[in-house]
Amino acid sequence: MHRIKIRHLETLMVFMKTGSVTEAAEILGTTQPNASKSLKQLEGAIGISLFQRNGGRLQPTPEAEILFAHAARLMEELAFIETLSGDLARLRSGFVQVATLATFGVALLPLVAEAFNTRHPDVAVQIDVVDSDKIHSFVSRGNYDLGLVHHPSQEVDLTARTLRTGSMVCILPAAHPLARRPGIRAADLAGMPLITYPRTLPFGAAIAKTLADEGVQVRNPLSANHSHVVRKLVERGRGLALVDEYSVWDAAAAPGIAVRPFEPRIPVSIGMIVSQRRPLSLAAQAFLTALQDALATPPL
């Protein structure tokens, strides 16, 4: 028996629905002799007779009825695959999973997700805040399309790339006297209530070292290990803070706080990691493009 091809199943479907060589030829867009030839090729391919002539009509055999039921389901699935492939190519379907550090989820990624959803409303996006020591392993195992970290490291099975190197910025209540200045220097913070991070965290250690190097002493009545909490405390007027610029990427839409450049500069990077075993889907590539577009327009 020869292998059955899609065109054989299409021929079967047409003859089953019409029961007529003439009508089948019209639907298949061919002549009656060619339609009859196609039917004989189908029967030759499967090795059994599928139709009997009865009063000028084609009467399907029981075997044809059985094959038709399965062929109908297969053709429906094929039609679904054709539609789905078109939707995937046009980003009318898809799923993007992103693992990120918490600081990128405060302001930057919500803006990116909003822009992406506006362009591609039918593509689902899942953004998960994940511990920094787990992002690399999760992406390597294929649990996520891409991971966002501060310092992407080139590891086995991973491709890493820095997307932007920004800076720590000073955030303060919009009504604070220092908000009138175009920029904030370390000396301006002397004696001020500075909401900061624990020194056991990289941000906290970098801020403490910078202020110590500048000979500046501040008051630290409040601290938190999450940029979102630090930002909320500033919004409530509890003090000033130095945070990474990514956590205030939406500063233009945050009337309660002012964001100012800080000197001396404390660099903060955002990088991505992707699996070398799993190419990025079209949807994930589009999300990465939306992220890069957002990073091209910093808050300051």
TrEMBL record:
<dbReference type="Pfam" id="PF00126">
    <property type="entry name" value="HTH_1"/>
</dbReference>
<comment type="similarity">
    <text>Belongs to the LysR transcriptional regulatory family.</text>
</comment>
<dbReference type="InterPro" id="IPR000847">
    <property type="entry name" value="LysR_HTH_N"/>
</dbReference>
<dbReference type="Pfam" id="PF03466">
    <property type="entry name" value="LysR_substrate"/>
</dbReference>
<protein>
    <recommendedName>
        <fullName>HTH lysR-type domain-containing protein</fullName>
    </recommendedName>
</protein>
<dbReference type="InterPro" id="IPR005119">
    <property type="entry name" value="LysR_subst-bd"/>
</dbReference>
<dbReference type="InterPro" id="IPR036390">
    <property type="entry name" value="WH_DNA-bd_sf"/>
</dbReference>
<dbReference type="InterPro" id="IPR036388">
    <property type="entry name" value="WH-like_DNA-bd_sf"/>
</dbReference>
<feature type="domain" description="HTH lysR-type">
    <location>
        <begin position="4"/>
        <end position="61"/>
    </location>
</feature>
<dbReference type="GO" id="GO:0010628">
    <property type="term" value="P:positive regulation of gene expression"/>
</dbReference>
<dbReference type="GO" id="GO:0003700">
    <property type="term" value="F:DNA-binding transcription factor activity"/>
</dbReference>
<keyword id="KW-0804">Transcription</keyword>
<keyword id="KW-0238">DNA-binding</keyword>
<keyword id="KW-0805">Transcription regulation</keyword>
<dbReference type="GO" id="GO:0043565">
    <property type="term" value="F:sequence-specific DNA binding"/>
</dbReference>
